[in-house]
Amino acid sequence: MNILYICHRLPYPPNKGCKIRAFRTIEHLARHHDVSCACFVDDPADMQYVPALREFCREVIAIPLNRKRALVRGMMDLAIDETMTGGFYRSNAMADALRNISTRIEFDALVVFSSGMGQYAECVEAPTRIIDLCDLDSAKWASMAQQSLPPRSWLFEAEAHRLAQTERDLYEQFDATILISAQEANDWTGDRAKLHIMGNGVRCPHKTDDRPSDSKIIGFVGDMRYMPNVDAVCWFATEIFPLIREHDPDAKFHIIGRSPTRRVRQLARQAAIHVTGEVDDVWTHLRRCQIAVAPLRIARGVQNKVLESMAAGVPVVATSPVAAALQATSGEHLLVADDVAGFVARVVELLRDPSRCTALGSQARRWVASAYRWPTQLSILDDLLVATPARVVTRLTTAGFSR
Known about the structure:
Layout: E1 2-7, H1 17-30, E2 34-41, H2 50-54, E3 59-64, H3 67-79, H4 84-88, H5 92-104, E4 109-113, E5 128-134, H6 137-146, H7 152-173, E6 176-179, H8 182-186, E7 195-197, E8 217-221, H9 227-247, E9 252-256, H10 262-265, E10 273-277, H11 282-286, E11 291-294, H12 304-311, E12 316-318, H13 320-326, E13 335-336, H14 340-351, H15 354-371, H16 374-386, H17 389-398
């Protein structure tokens, strides 16, 4: 099949959540199909990676995106009762490039990743049309509104309301709509006949038995300009970590991830907190951690940072929405805490018991290696491309999707 994959960010290198999902999807499809990719490049430094993506694709359309101009465009759209997300990703250059490639290649299928890119479906002719919303962006904006103060909360609430309508419109326009987890699907309102679940996967490192179990390092991994991550590390660093240090003065908190905001960088002024910025190899930093935390108060979808920590054999303490999205069991796959006292208790418990860290980390690694394999997750997309909807719905229902 000739497949066109459209996504909002260059999916290479696969070093953050959305890029990981997009790249693994392209990599998977390219094994049996001719895949072309159209995407934005929102970081000029990423242009160097376009040739690497071409190793997997018949053609790559990479359109530069100026984030400041895109944000202005988004705010203008919000002011006229449109979505900020749609305005951010609106581009005549992208639309023209898609119309052009559609005249040169007869596509059998169109796969669109994210609600912001759904607007480009009308530029391409293809008999099979699938949109991967991944998370419900409308719910994410609603969660951010709850964690913010006016006037930002008002803007976030408006975006959430309008995106919810956009998601419903896209559902009607596409043959199939994909979400990342049963938790996301259960938050969907309206018809569900064309709604499907495709989770994320993780690749486990070959060796974890040389990882130190008593380093006293508590790690957080993520894109540090992403608001839910910023909220999580600031909450942990200011309210939770000082109390942990009262129990264990040797404890250290490492914030590992690219593009830390000024607010995140300032956390390094506190004792025993280290902000790495972008690193060449996340696995190297993860394996030094005794514990990984995911104190996300705004959590949608499957958290790759948690899957990666588990795959590295690092025990995780996370909030209940994070655990629920993974369908993980507290005490078996990770530990759950939702407030300051709970996080302090769970983290201190692990810091004091290295053998418990090793056991929990090993259990988690075995579980994700079995339950979160990329080929298994992406087989859902294979079915959508070649099978009838009824067959796919049967598989998803047995996976825990409440209809």
